[in-house]
Design a protein that fits this description.
The chain is α/β, with parallel strands linked by helices. It contains eleven helices and six strands. It has two domains: 2-55 and 90-241; 58-86, no CATH class.
Amino acid sequence: MGVDLAASPVKTAVAVIEWRSGSARVTELVMPADDARIHTMVAGAARVGIDSPFGWPDDFVDFVVAQHRGELSAGSGLDDVSRRRPLAYRTTDLYVAALAGGRRPLSVSADNIAHVAFRCAGLLADLGITDRASGWAIEAYPAAALRRWGLQSRGYKTAANVSAREVMVEQLGQAAPWLDLNSHADAMIADDDAFDAVITALIARTADLGLTPAPPDDVRDTAMREGWIHVPDCELDQLVSSAGP
């Protein structure tokens, strides 16, 4: 299952993929979706991918708490942007940037995606998720997965880019001919949130098969607090050729 989470249920899409030996089928693609709907749909899912940050940088949390309590030390030198970066980017963001040639995910503490993360924190609590690193629900980043699979990863957001999404759905069909989009291809073309929900469901499958790198031992504790983005370390065809139903 893949959840393209937005700050509002109106822009939230949920995709369900059923897997069979050598094939897969998108059985549901729902939008809009509030937390109650998501909670109902995840029942029985082998793995759930959520396109949202699962936490905030440790340094940012410590900074906000210290400032709130009036305990922020003088001489922090925050006029230097390099000293602010640890407040903006998580360990997993830097890891993904290294994979993507320097392209970092949006900052959960400095960009508008924070509103999505607020909602995600509540959803994870509702679902009883305590392992933010490699639990039953995993953090997904569709753009990184698309790049890893050699598919277009830019220029498809917003309603104006329908033609780009037409190309991307066609690319996905060529790269994964075993994936039956059922009657949902038109929805994926019409809305980038619906498209990302399907990609997020594919990422959930990679995590379920153990085909996404877990956080290294030296940062696992940090990832448990901040979250960990699961980036596929496999080709698309491995999702149906690896062990599992």
